[in-house]
Amino acid sequence: MRTNRDGFEHGGPTPGGMELPILINRWVVAFNAHDVDELIALYHESAELFDTGMRHARRGHQEIAHWFSQRFSSMPTIQYTPTRRFFGEGQAVVCWIASGKTPRLLKQSWLSRPFQVDGVSIFLVRSGLILRQSDYYDHFAIVEQVFPPLRWLPFRL
Length: 157
What we know:
The chain has 157 residues and is α+β, with helices and mostly antiparallel strands.
């Protein structure tokens, strides 16, 4: 598996013809622009999206579009900054830092707090489209940033 820290390597075409690094770069740009239509265009119609913040995976364009729409609505400042990228045959891994402001607590904007958390997205690509994506990050790290007294606990929940 190849790695690229600062830019995207050209690792050969995906089965559908689009180069894998270009596909992933388009995903990052669309995510940071909060462009749900562009994001959905990058997924296979039967794609699966899993995020550790979900109770269950989202499947298909409609469920995935709904997830992104809700995410961007509740967190209008969220951005991903890729820190490392790995490309293999039909797969990519992107390490990133997510930052922004948390959703409003109790519908009060003054209770929204800035956050930053490291995470990783794992993409499985078939026919030039994302077939499966899994995102992993530490939710408790975000909660600790929102409620600093939790950092004083002698253990993590």
